[in-house]
Write a structure and sequence with these properties.
102 residues; alpha+beta; four-stranded antiparallel beta sheet
């Protein structure tokens, strides 16, 4: 290469590729309308999900949460129910009542 050092292509080791692949898997939260089966939204954090629930409760009737459910999808692809219906509304209104393990 004129006037400089030759450029070598960077090759990623198998270990490096596996490490990168592990970091692309994420946990996220999904808010669902269980009556229609439609997803309302997905969120990176539980706090963001509960903020949306509070917003929806303030914009709609108090019974809105009866048709809503919040789940957490983990790195293994399995979804765990966090709360639904009245329990979801109560947890959204009182963040201190939200279990730390969910």
């Amino acid at each position: 290469m004129p006037g400089g050092c030759p450029v070598r292509p960077v090759r990623r080791s198998i270990a490096m590729r596996r490490a990168v692949d592990r970091y692309t898997v994420v946990m996220f939260y999904e808010l669902w309308d269980v009556e229609t089966g439609n997803i309302i939204g997905d969120f990176d954090t539980k706090a963001e999900a509960f903020a949306m629930v509070r917003e929806l409760l303030s914009a709609n009737s108090p019974n809105y949460a009866a048709a809503a459910a919040l789940g957490r999808t983990g790195e293994d692809g399995q979804t765990k129910l966090i709360a639904e219906g009245a329990a979801l509304a109560a947890q959204a209104r009182d963040p201190d009542s939200i279990p730390r393990t969910a």
